[in-house]
User: What shape does this take?
Amino acid sequence: MRGRQAARILHQETIAVSQLTDFDLDQDGKIDLNAVYDRPDPRAYYQTLAAFDYRIPAAAEPLFRRTIRAFRRARRRPSTTLLDVGSSYGVNAAILKHRYSLPALFDIYGREATEGIATDRLLERDRALFGNGRGDDSLLTIGLDTSEEAIAYASDAGIIDKGIVTNLEERALTPAETAALAPVDLVLSTGAIGYVGAQTFDRILDASRNRPWLAVFALRMFPVARIVSALRERSYAVFKLDGETFRQRRFANREERGEVLARLADLGVNPAHRESDGWLHAEFYLARPEGEPSGLSLPGLRPI
Assistant: This one.
């Protein structure tokens, strides 16, 4: 038995959300959520984000599913290997592969459902929940995150098929990690851009043998120009869904709201009816090799 798994079996998670909401701001002006990303099980993650009305994975699901269908038509493949960049505890895999809604995940990991349950018992429960035959076998999911605890739990519970713990802004892939990423068809992300940049995507694309598509959401406070430029250098066509933004979550406090609004002002981004209303907003981007028809029909999807 691995050391970290043995530690989880001895650990009982009892921290209430009220103890997890006093966050410092990170260097970008957002609250620092490392305290909930690096715990032995997901309950603090889901309970805290539910308190902030987190919703971007639910908003992303229909676009991701349409992208998967379009990719399969374009490549004539019945199955798809997904890489989720910044996967945390596998929320996108839980939704896309295991068909759980985000509200259902909030319920599954809510205080009423998990209070007093030791981590080893929660892991046993989740292995049953995510291994009950409801998973889509045509999707193979790989999670990539800097949190060893989050990847370990998602892997052990069967939420993701494979996990990689690394920061690709800081180091290259190992040979084993490169081999794991070789079959990737579609790269997804709902919240990593801003913390990862062109270096991460360059290293992923170097490893993949399939010239994968990318379907990612980026908060409006984080410019994507360097990532777009890096993709163009690799002969990728990049598209943005104009005229629509997606709520990620509510601001945690006035301090975070003020910092984000100041950053948007510096970027010349108008927050009216979006961030000024109390929400972080993201935009959707699609990238695929030049000359390859996307087959993804979305009003407002324009080349950039």
About this structure: Confidence is low (pLDDT under 50) at residues 1-21. The chain is about 40% helix and 15% strand. The longest strand covers residues 279-289.
